[in-house]
Amino acid sequence: MDINTLLADAKARFSHNSAKHYLREKYSSKLILADQGGLWKADKETISLLNSLDTEKVVLMDTFDNPVEVDRVELLSKLSTIYSETMKAWLKEAQELEGKR
Hints:
Elements: H1 3-29, E1 32-35, E2 38-41, H2 44-52, E3 57-61, E4 67-71, H3 72-100
Antiparallel strand pairs: 1-2, 3-4
Helix pairs in contact: 1-3, 2-3
């Protein structure tokens, strides 16, 4: 391999990794929800916790570590919807990125 080929490959990998990082940042910010007096992240841990509880009202720590009493079912529904929609959009863009590679 000559130096120009090596440089082109390195630039392509760097560009691809930068694009992946951009997608992670873009979609991570879309997983944030302000609701019921707190700021919540629609992630696997929060959704699993809400699924495992069985009371209507629960007190949770929001992303700023403030205790907030919430309607469990309502918050679970909103976070699950945001998570699902965001992950589908992220997957679509990630697949397009891999197709360009």
